[in-house]
Amino acid sequence: MALQVGDKAPASLGVNQDGKEILLSDFAGKKVVLYFYPKDQTPGCTAQACSLRDGYENLQKAGYEVFGVSTDSEASHQKFIAKQNLPFQLIADVDKKLSEQFGTWGEKSMYGRSYMGMFRTTFIIDENGIIERIILPKEVNTKTHAAQILG
Hints:
By secondary structure, the protein is an alpha/beta fold. The chain is built from five helices and nine strands. It has helices spanning 43-54, 56-61, 74-84, 97-102, 145-150; strands at 12-15, 21-23, 31-36, 64-70, 89-92, 105-110, 113-118, 121-125, 131-135. The protein has a five-stranded mixed β-sheet. Strands 1-2 form a two-stranded antiparallel ribbon. A two-stranded antiparallel sheet has the order 6-7.
């Protein structure tokens, strides 16, 4: 069962690009933007990451901390951060544990072919660790995502 608005987010968000565990409690008092995306270095995911990068200062001023989540490895995340000059951390959900908890991993189809993959979804978690808003896959605008969050 996927997490919904009003649910408490998991205490551990997994490990970042440096292998460090990210705990929600480390960001108590801040809102957390947890955005799930399919793959490092792909056009849509790069556009989304760059929108969040370019809007990062405004997001921080509004009290948000940003984390990207994909099933890519720590090494892949390090390259993505370096290449795109990303100011936020990326979570390496290689075992898909977090994605499955949030309901963002599942069956997708393209050109009539079914496969398992990540649904591009953003969760806004309030200062108390409660999910207050979900931007669903069909709603996410990769090019203006930071503005969408600040909405």
